[in-house]
């Protein structure tokens, strides 16, 4: 009885028609075996947010899974989008990301999301569980009460070297488990807020850092 049988169908409708008000997609329990690619949504704004969330509220029962490399979810120039109480799974792949955020993006919020990254020992940003690329600015990013598993780095957010620093990055109440290089790495950031997070790893990587800050002020 759902309006869309797959996330890709829902995303295609968003790209085609845009939004004229706040929109929430309630995901029924189950595993969605698909790669999700979302670009800028016409009409999205501070008042017209788009939210993807578990209908049951159980983040372990609503799973988006993709195992063929690259990334399970790609957000390209996306703003004013929220994800709540879902699992984004990429752990059975040999490389890639759960989520990769490309292009200029702002006001992205993740709450109660489980990110399951690649389980094999990998290095490099392209194997971060959550990867914010450094090709454009990304402001107002919030990650709250999430769980980030595996990957080379749990969350890597690059910022743009030589330009204005990214701002309003907040990561709180989040658990980081079993990263190989670093739990959390931020570059080119102004006043990031990191509170009440737990980072735990058995990595044997000689240069492992729980938190790695580069060109971060305030």
Structure notes:
- The protein is globular, with a radius of gyration of 16 Å.
- The model has no long low-confidence stretch (mean pLDDT 95).
- 5% of the residues lie in helices and 47% in strands.
- By secondary structure, it is mainly β.
- The protein has 1 helix and 22 strands.
- The protein has one helix spanning 7-17, and strands at 23-27, 30-33, 36-39, 50-54, 62-65, 71-76, 81-84, 87-89, 97-102, 105-111, 114-116, 130-132, 138-144, 147-149, 153-157, 166-167, 169-172, 175-177, 182-190, 193-195, 198-200, 209-217.
- The strands form 3 sheets. Strands 3, 6, 9, 12, 15, 16, 19 and 22 form an 8-stranded parallel beta sheet that branches.
Task: Draw up the topology in text.
Blueprint: H1 7-17, E1 23-27, E2 30-33, E3 36-39, E4 50-54, E5 62-65, E6 71-76, E7 81-84, E8 87-89, E9 97-102, E10 105-111, E11 114-116, E12 130-132, E13 138-144, E14 147-149, E15 153-157, E16 166-167, E17 169-172, E18 175-177, E19 182-190, E20 193-195, E21 198-200, E22 209-217
């Amino acid at each position: 009885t759902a309006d869309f049988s797959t996330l890709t169908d829902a995303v295609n409708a968003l790209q085609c028609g845009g939004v004229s008000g706040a929109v929430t997609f309630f995901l029924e329990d189950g595993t969605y075996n698909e790669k999700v690619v979302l670009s800028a949504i016409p009409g999205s704004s501070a008042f017209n947010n788009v939210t993807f969330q578990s209908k049951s509220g159980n983040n372990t029962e609503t799973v988006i899974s993709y195992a063929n490399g690259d990334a399970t979810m790609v957000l390209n120039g996306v703003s004013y989008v929220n994800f709540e109480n879902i699992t984004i799974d990429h752990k059975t792949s040999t490389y890639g990301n759960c989520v990769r955020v490309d292009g200029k993006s702002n006001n992205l919020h993740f709450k109660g999301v489980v990110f399951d990254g690649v389980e094999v020992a990998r290095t490099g940003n392209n194997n971060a569980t959550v990867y914010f690329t450094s090709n454009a600015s990304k402001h107002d990013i919030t990650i709250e009460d999430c769980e980030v598993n595996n990957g080379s780095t749990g969350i890597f957010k690059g910022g743009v070297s030589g330009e204005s620093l990214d701002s309003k990055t907040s990561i709180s109440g989040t658990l980081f488990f079993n990263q190989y290089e670093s739990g959390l790495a931020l570059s080119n950031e102004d006043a990031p807020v990191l509170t009440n997070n737990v980072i735990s790893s058995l990595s044997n990587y000689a240069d492992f850092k729980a938190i790695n800050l580069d060109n971060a002020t305030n």
